[in-house]
Amino acid sequence: MAFEDIKVRSYDVDLDRARLELLERRCEVGPSQHVFLFTDTMGDPISRIRNSPLYIMLVAELNHELIGAIQGSIKVVTMKDLAKVGYILGLRVSPLHRRKGIGTSLVQHLEEWFIGNQVDYAYMATEKDNNASVNLFVNKLGYVKFRTPAILVYPVKSQPLKISSKIEIFKINEENAEYLYRRYMGLTEFFPSDIDKVLRNKLSLGTWVACDQGARDQFGQNGNFPTNWAMLSVWDSGGLFKLRIEKAPISCLVYSKVLKVVDKVFACFNMPALLCNVFEPFGFYFLYGLHQEGPVSGTMVRALCKYVHNMARVGVDCKMVVTEVGSYDERVRPQIPHWRLLSCLEDLWCIKTLKSEERESVNELAIIPHTTPLFVDPREV
């Protein structure tokens, strides 16, 4: 196959939507050799980037066959200073056409679009042990390994989780949430300059604060806050796309049916809803903007996570609560309920400068120990 036979162009909804859905089904997501996780975009292949300030999807064609796709978005975030960054996601190449330079071509075309929009840095995320992805971006395209955050996943159980009566949880409005985020997380890596638009998005279900019982009335009065408190916001990712498990062994199907019976007969077992309905499409809530203040605020983080879990129980098709946190903070990670089996404790972010004068600074960013929080934008999950 001649490299020049491949045509890379912008996504056309009329021409490509059905073909992209077929491509997505051919490309498994996740490391399992037996259980494949698929994304169901519910008829909107660009749903994952549609809420970004600026975005594009590119597709690769060969002899009128759609064989690859990639998505990219642009925003302004905090790095050492404010910087315009381009996020790469959704790289897909048909299994029959891999190892032929198609992925490289798609990434390079997307980088050209970034450069045309004055982007300072391009970055992407992958599993740490995804050798094909690491080889493409790091060894071939010049990206450097940057951060290793943890993706923590907790399945929604059939019964509510108990929250300490000593902790009070309350919702705050978007204006107050924006104030708190800019005050306490404004210098956090990858903090989006348009946090106000994130908070006001229809998929953002709100922001909640936890503090000691009795401290709510003084919260924020005259700019003062309790010694210990925590906050987070919730994004309904299931409003954009669903996840679906397919091609699992027959034992999984039998296991799922047995769990349904057990859960009905023995409700006290508190089975995860996902395991009882393993083959049905499901959504998830994503926790973002998690912040804590005070030496014992970890218990408040845990209370907030439980609160969101209980919200998810009554959410439509919500079967998981997910968050992503930086690798530096060992105080907060144990406070976030998660299953190690479903979580990725070392996700890998890679970054590349698109401006020659920034080349030394990106290398400095990569080697500096990660000692500050990392803000994960829910629009890019």
Automatic annotation (TrEMBL):
SUPFAM superfamilies: Acyl-CoA N-acyltransferases (Nat). Pfam families: Acetyltransf_1 (PF00583). GO terms for molecular function: acyltransferase activity, transferring groups other than amino-acyl groups. It comes from the Eukaryota. InterPro entries: Acyl_CoA_acyltransferase, GNAT_dom, Plant_NAT. Residues 6-160 form the N-acetyltransferase domain. PANTHER family: ACYL-COA N-ACYLTRANSFERASES (NAT) SUPERFAMILY PROTEIN. This is N-acetyltransferase domain-containing protein.
